Amino acid sequence: MNIFTFLFVVSTYLLFIIFRSFTEVSLESQLLFSSFFILIIGIPHGAIDHVLFFKKRTLSQIKFYAIYLGLILVFLVLWIYFPFWSLLLFLLISAFHFGESQFSEIKASNLIKYLLYPVWGIALLSTLMHYNLLELIDITTYFKDTNDLQILYDEGFIFQLYLITNVGSVILLLLLAVKSQMNLDRLFSELFLLIILHITFYLFPFLIAFTMYFVILHSIKVMHQEYQFLKNDNDTFKLIDFIKILLPYSLLSIFFTALIIALSYVGIISYSVPLVSIIIISVITLPHAIVMHIFYNE
User: Fold this and answer.
1) Domain of 132?
2) Which of the two ends of the chain, N or C, has the fewest CB atoms closer than 10 A to its terminal CB?
3) In this predicted structure, what is the pLDDT of residue 23?
4) Contact of 212 with 124, CB cutoff 8 Å
5) Tens digits of per-residue pLDDT, 62-106?
6) Quick check: is 25 in a domain?
7) pTM of the predicted model, to two decimals?
8) Residue 22 counted as domain residue
């Protein structure tokens, strides 16, 4: 068990105790909890994309920012005109990105890696959706502008996806072990993590369960990878230096995210807070996932 899985298990246990103390945790409280940790920890893990990119490739800063912001703008336009397909694209990008960050250091053939990344990521998301489908449908149908998105939450389809990708993930992990591309300690650790994810997603509401995964198992882990990379590149690089380079774009992103959500909340922006939140996360995820793919593979 690595440190991130250990933190996740401890957090799951502590939250379970807290949840047992209350008969019901309101959606507003869940949103407050999730928003706080995603803003404070989730957003910063993508705040040094520019630093990582220029460590791997040579490109003018103008071209980099034009492409990065251009991707955000294109995805934003897609959301305005094709919300369902944009949500589907966001989920697929996220699935691949989650899988890649989880297994980035695995030395395997491209065929196995590029099967494992999306299969594991889709297993993660479909498991989360399967155990919380009724809650997702309730949240989606509550707001007029998210009502059309519920077509994605077909119970039969989600269940089939849940079964196929979970079984597929286990088979691919076993294949890596058989081919000696993953040692037994790592294999058991990954299988244990899958079990813990199932328990967590079953026990907790959708927002809480996703936030726990996204913050602890993804964002903190990715920031650790980024820090180790920069430290290996420069022996004098320290944690305080890492925090300093994280801060500018983290604070900028947090400010504008909070501003847009506030404008949505008071009705100045004619989109509901949940939809605005999904759009913000998705348009940031697209260029971030591309930069991290370059970071992991070059």
Assistant:
1) 3-13+31-297
2) C
3) 67
4) no
5) 999 999 999 999 999 999 999 999 999 999 999 999 999 999 988
6) no
7) 0.92
8) no
Number of Cβ within a 10 Å radius of residue 83: 18
Tokens 């294949």, residue located: 175
* Residue 217 and residue 8 in contact, taking contact as beta carbons nearer than 8 Å: yes
Residue 213 DSSP label: I
Sign of CA dihedral 42, 47, 51, 57: positive
Region of 108 please: left (phi>0), alpha (psi -120 to 50) or beta: beta
Q: Report which DSSP code applies to 218.
A: I
Classify burial at 246, counting beta carbons within 10 Å of its beta carbon; exposed 0-12, middle 13-18, buried 19 or more: buried
**Has residue 104 been placed in a domain?**
yes
For residue 133, what is the DSSP state? H
Closest residue by Cα to residue 75 from 258, 254, 286, 289: 286
Q: Which two tokens stand for residue 97?
A: 């990105």
How confident is the model over 206-215, as pLDDT tens digits? Answer: 989 999 999 9
HSE (CB half, 13 Å, CA atoms) of 51? Answer: 20
Q: How far apart are CA 171 and CA 165, in angstroms?
A: 10
Question: What is the domain count for the chain?
Answer: 1
Binning pLDDT at 50, 70 and 90, where does residue 139 land?
A: confident
What DSSP assignment string belongs to 252-290? HHHHHHHHHHHHHHTTSSSS-HHHHHHHHHHHHHHHHHH
Distance (Å, whole) CA 55 – CA 52:
5
Inside any domain, residue 37? yes
